[in-house]
Here is the input.
Amino acid sequence: MEPDTITFSFGRNWRDFLETVSEDTLRRAMGDIVDWIGRDNVAGKSVLDIGSGSGIHSLCFHSLGAREVFSFDVDPHSVASTRLLWEKAGKPANWSVVHGSILDKSFVDQLARAQIVYSWGVLHHTGSMWKAIENAASRVASGGLFWIALYVKGPHYDEHLALKRKYNRRSKVGKKVMVWTEILRIMRERHRNGLDPWSWNLQNERGMDTYHDLVDWLGGLPYEVASREEVVNFCATRGFALQKVMELPEGGNNIYLFARN
Here is the structure.
């Protein structure tokens, strides 16, 4: 099988997203962290943000009083986005932003173990998901937290993969047509449910918005999926106990919070 044609950049999408970030966006993102792991479990702790994307969650960890934040991403545009927020935060010495890949074992082995290792919606886009999960888990300190989100396995995987491949093969105009086709579908669905179709671009609880999440969904290659049982068993054999999970339907991300025994 020939390798996928990949023309989509997560980093460019998140750099565009930064133009929309408001105080409410940051409040939502920070609130999500507090809801999941608690303010006291961030303050004074070391954080490793794998695949930092736009950088807003690294910023939130920093703002919540993390002792140290280390952010990295394989996409240079994501690195640039995260560095932009780092600069706006005053270039704090306890927050580092670098370019790197979670699949690069020599790079990963040089990283200090952290008390919180965070990777939301990233490891399934590496092209080697289980290796990425294993490498990420290896950086969790004893007693630390491992917080990850992964696409859900289901019967429509081939259909979803074909959609993403189609998007990546399209021209710039073709990509916009696919995005707006999906937006019109969302608007029609809102109208059928008695909701304002023009208010389709909602912010979610993590601070992201419908538009940039949609572009991320359409463009996101490589693309792998996992069931809850697969993830829990994989992590259990590596010394992790599940603390909390949020399960979503196929097409969404299951969110897992593990603690290292």
